[in-house]
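Minutes, project check-in

Agenda point 3 was the complex the collaborators sent over. CS summarized: two entities, 681 residues total, and the question is how they sit relative to each other. Sequences were read into the notes so everyone works from the same version.
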Amino acid sequence: MPDMNLGQAVDRAIEDAMGRDDSIVLIGEDAPMLRAPLLARFGAGRVLAAPISESAFLGAAAGAAMAGLRPVVELYMVDFIAVAFDAVLNHIAKLEGFSGGKWKAPLVIRAPSGGGYGDGGQHGQSLWGTLASIPGLTVVVASTPADAYGLMTTALGHDGPVVFMEPKLLSEDWLEFLGRGGRDTVSFDVPAEGAVGPVPDSPHSTPFGKAIVRREGADVTIVSVAVGVHRALEAADKLHGSDVSCEVIDLRSLRPLDVETVVESVTKTGCLLVVDEDYREFGLAGELAAVCLEAALSPRYARVCVEDTLPYARHLEDAALPNVDRIVEAVKSLADA
Amino acid sequence: MELTGLYRQMLRARSYELAVEDLWHRGLISGEMHLGTGEEAVAAGVVTLLGDGDGLALTHRCSPALVVRGVPIVPMLRELLGCEDGLCGGHGGHMHLFSKDHLAATSGIVGASLPTAAGFALANRRLRANKVAVAFTGTGAMNSGMALETLNLAAAWSLPLIVVCIDNGWSITTTSEEVTGGGHLERARAFGLRADSVDGTDVRAVHKAAGKLIDFSRRGKGPAFLLASCPRLDGHFLGDLLLRMARRPVAEGKDTFAKVIASATSRGGGGLRDRAGGMTRMMSVMAKARRGPTREQRGDPMLAVRKAMKKHKSERDRIDSEVSTEIESAVETALADFGESADA
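CS then shared the predicted structure for the full assembly.
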């Protein structure tokens, strides 16, 4: 069971699946450089260098998926999905619905996400709330290398479109490429358990729509994804001494959402804190509150999210992203209420 | 403008970028840093033709044009350093620099400079007589839908827009040639723009060619397109892995090469031809990156302009000294409360 970083686990899952399934093709800007190992194994017919034409190559990937291929489209960052949003919103997500369920198209969008390395507000967004609001899409977010491998493997066997999000802060490959650039004069607050971990040798998959309880607790349920899970776990550790026991749930999959696991935990604790690196309004935080209300629960509730356009300066960005201090404070005020 | 004025602006742009490079390496600037080294002749040749009211929309590689446009340098540096008194309060960073006073905006989204500049041009036509807007872009961006759509929009609306397209041969780490159909001049002309091309390392040639096109647009004749070729001296961004691997294959590339070889020899996948083709492609891109010009070598526009300034040696020396003082003192001011010296 080799240790690898989260980005390497995704690469491995794609390579393993491409070895098994000839219909998988990989499309992306700079794919020949970024995915040189795949190019050297599968050739230019299956690893395609894309021009900087997101709306064209994502739209074309949707068409190719409809016609029998299984494309993996790599975006440099999920922020850039905006350029190709029509293909996502109006086409690939709607095919199954429009065709009365008679036509599904397997397409995986690999989208690195999130901030924490000072790249500014067009390169550090998360956007899973926006994407997960769209019927017809599956949206998954990895927070460990093992899950990254497992979720990507499931995505590559899934019969519909999947947006696979990969937090850059948990991927040394991305951090080195975009944040460090060979420097030893910068550092990042990388949660160790998320960044590097064992990935089982034999192909394994992580089911969609199944959250995982990363830490059991009695007083407050903290629900998160991606880097937020690790920040929540660190906050839970800190709070352990102050007699507040936190349960930490990693959703892993936003659409479909594992309502059962959330409701079960909130029923137990009576208290819900959502930690979300995506925007606060009209997103995951509100959705989880709604889910609880629909289950006839009325827990004490708070949310620690991104509230504004992400600032560039590292200290401003650190304050804007859900950090351990903000989570601890939120848990304390919930527990005291 | 006289050569000496153009030389001064080129030198200001280069010196600024070298200062930024140093600050970035020292870890005082975070994230990606796309230096505009190699683009100085284009920036100086074009932007010195702009004045108050003219709009300027730029890309992730925006510093040379902003420096030439006269955006104050200390606030720009303070922005990159993430300070509250930076040009954008530390919120923008180098890809999102805005100066309302100069009607200048930048974006990290490839292709976005064209529609923004088209909007500046539209507003200018109604609000500011004889004012134009310039979009800087690159050949990679000219494959984006929004860029091509803007060429049509500008022609259909006869906007006072000048698109300056820099051709450095690259679309990030992919050669532009590999991912581009047709020629950029032909495309622009097909949309009905007046189009010209120029050696983007020759500042006088750029100034002259851009002058004609800007004048054309100022007179209400419609949009124009200038294709300017110049080198990308420091890769896509500082620390560009492709460039690092190309220049120091053993030290920087060994992990990647090991992965490539492991994959290329794995069971399952393409035939020998596919695998050999993949390896060859990788080697040829590395070779191209390695061959590319570096600073102070043939192809560097600074070398060419210095040579052209030989006839004005005493003036050149004076400008060198003045610009050096300007940039050094800007860096010193920008770093004043950092506890770091300007020449660490």
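Noted in discussion: Chain A touches chain B through 57 residues (CB under 8 Å).
Follow-up: revisit at the next meeting once the mutant set is ready.
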